[in-house]
Each structure stands twice: as C-alpha cells, then as structure tokens.
Amino acid sequence: MVQLFLPFIIFVSLFEMFLAMKEIRMVDLKSQYQKIKTAVDSSIAEVIENTEFINGSQVKNFQQNLENYLGVKHVIPCGNGTDALQIALMSLGLKAGDEVITSDFTFIATLEVIALLGLKPVIADVDPHTFNISVESLKKAVTPKTKAIIPVHLFGQCADMDAIMTIARKHSIAVVEDCAQAMGATYTYNGKPAHAGTIGDLGCTSFFPSKNLGCYGDGGAIMTNNDELAKMCRSIANHGMKVRYYHDHVGVNSRLDTIQAAVLNVKLQYLDEYNKSRQEAAAFYDTAFSSSDKLCVPSRNSQSTHIFHQYTLVLRGIDREALRTHLQHKGIPAMIYYPVPLHLQNAYKDLGYKEGDFPVTEQLCKSVISLPMHTELDTEQLEYITKSVLEFLS
C-alpha cells in the first residue's frame, strides 16, 4: 500500500515546490538585469546624454576592456557574431572554391558564412563526448584546397586546439575560432592557459542576449594577435575604409552599437562570476543525474574549462519528446540544440552529403536535450528540475 502512495507523494511535493518558486526560464535575463540595473541604466543614460550613438567612447572602452580581459592584442567590435565570422574569413583573402572545414554539430551561421562568400564548405563529424570537432574526422577532410578551419567551441568548452593547430600549421591552413558559446572559457595551449578565441589566427564571438556575455540586442567581435589581420578586419567592417571615403577593399557595414557597448562594459565585469554560477548549476545537475544509466551528463575536456552556455544531456533509451512534454507540463522549458545536422539541412543539399556520412552528429541530433542554464538558477529551481527529470525516469 505504501508503494502505491509514493508516486502521489512525489507529485504533491513537486507541485508544492513549483507553486513556491519563481518562474523557470531557459535564460533568465530579467533577474540578471535586476541585479545590475543601476549600473546598466547609468551606462545607457550616459550614451543618450552624450548622443554618441555610433562609434561612441563606450565602444572604444569596451574594446580595450575586452582586450585586457582576454589578453589579446586586438578586438574588433562588429554588428553580430555572423558578421564577425564573415569579416574574419574575408580578411584572409580566400578565393572562390577554397575549402573551409567546420563542425557538423553547431548553429547554421558557421556554415552559412562560408557559402555566402563563395567558398566551399567541408563538414567534419564531432567527438561523441565533447561534441566538438573530431580531430580524426578533421584530418580526413583536409585536402590541398583547404584554406581555413573553423572549430566551434560548442556549449561552453574549447575544441582540441593543440591538435587542430598542429594540423593547421602542418598544412598552412588558417584557423578561425568560433567562440560564440565559450566567452570566458580557457584552454591550456602549449602548457599555458589561453582564452577561447585567442589561440587561432582569428577568433569570433557573438554578444546575442542569451550568450554568457550578452548585450541587449545584437553585437559581436573579432579577436586576433595578428596586426595585419586586425587592420584588415577593421577596414572590412567599415566599408573597406582605412581613411574616410577612401575604399581600399570590398567591405561591409558592421558596427557594435554604442548602447550595446555600454551594456557589455558593465556585464564584462561580472563575466567570471556569471560563468562560475553556471558551473555550480552544472555541478548540481551532474550530481543529481550521475546515478542514472539513461542520462549521459556533459563530458569535460581536461585541457579546457567548461562554462556551460548550455547544459546538454545525451539520452539513452528515452523518448525525448515524451520527456520534453513532461517537463513542459511541469513548467520547465527544455530545448533541442540541434535537431538536424548541418549536412542534412535542405539549404545545403548541393554539398552532396547524405544520411550516414557523419554518424556521431546524426545520433546526437536524435538524443540530446538541454535543460535551463543561466546565472540566476537557485537551489530550489535546480532541485525541482532534477526531481522532475528523475520522476519521468522512474
């Protein structure tokens, strides 16, 4: 008789927890803003008061502050993360048909910019544990036409940059790091810690609001220690100009808005604290799920910190949509990053890939689910989320 009442008792307990706590969001920017409201409002008001809406002093300040934080010589702010990738590739002087290798398991922007520039996208499979580009798959993808590699530091930890840089230097290939999900992560490169985005020839990031370092609109940046590439990126981002009205290169118009820079200047001061909060939430999830053989918690690359832009589980023998529906009924959002591999997207059928070409990515796309992950998760919310997941498994 006691066993019959246990599910009911668990249900009542979870329902009482739900009623008592604040709303659970995938990303809780509202609560984060409330903690830094005074500083953010003041910084934005300064921009409006000075009417420096384009290329204002806050943009230059943020550029310098981010250079200092990353320990990199040059940061080139721009309009968004996709622009950052496009400008970085343009700065390399690649020609139509040149091949650029990137990961199959990522957001479409990484592949998109390659195609937009008339370059040939080449896709590599990913490591089943870290979800980052597989070194073995990368090696097989390199040809004499390969001119660049874009490793994506997915979900908050760095790809195997030692191996990637070794391959790139051996074949004289440029490396453009996509660190849009890993701002603040570090990687032990050649025995020394280096920030994501500062190891390759160029690094690119997005300041989309949900990122670990996010603004309140669109924004992005390029990072490099190469003086010539920095000059070229700055010129390309400003209509190909070095001197006003003298256009030396084909360029674009991509600027970081001054108001967004004002927000980022405030939030950069809290980035390490934000990442620590994410790591603590991830550790809570890990502990709660470690005893289940149906849930594979995120693996860690021993050379990289993990700052958990997403907390992504791999499900084993579980109906993912049923779990997602169960969580939705409990008021818990859950997302699928990403449901379709890049090589099977309709827009890129002409690349000639087919189902079965990249089995690791294809399996991940069928079995991953991401739980709420942000800086404002509290213990009560984490307990409710984890108990709700485990309730579904029981």
Q: What does this molecule look like?
A:
With about 400 residues, the chain is of the alpha/beta class. The chain is built from 13 helices and 14 strands. It has helices at about 1-20, 30-50, 55-70, 80-90, 110-115, 135-140, 160-170, 225-235, 260-270, 270-290, 320-330, 360-365, 380-394; strands spanning about 75-80, 100-105, 120-125, 145-150, 175-180, 185-190, 190-195, 200-205, 220-225, 240-245, 245, 295, 310-315, 370. A 7-stranded mixed sheet has the order 1-9-8-5-4-2-3, sandwiched between helices. Strands 12-13-14 form a 3-stranded antiparallel sheet. Helix 4 (about 80-90) crosses helix 8. The protein starts with a helix and ends with a helix. The model has no long low-confidence stretch (mean pLDDT about 95).
Helix content: 40-55%
Q: CATH H level of the largest domain: which superfamily?
A: Type I PLP-dependent aspartate aminotransferase-like (Major domain)
Strand order of the largest sheet: 1-9-8-5-4-2-3
Number of domains: 2
Class by alpha and beta content: alpha/beta
- Seen as an oligomer or otherwise, the chain set is single chain
- Would you tell me the overall average pLDDT? 95
The global form is globular
CATH class of the largest domain: Alpha Beta
Strand residues, percent: 5-15%
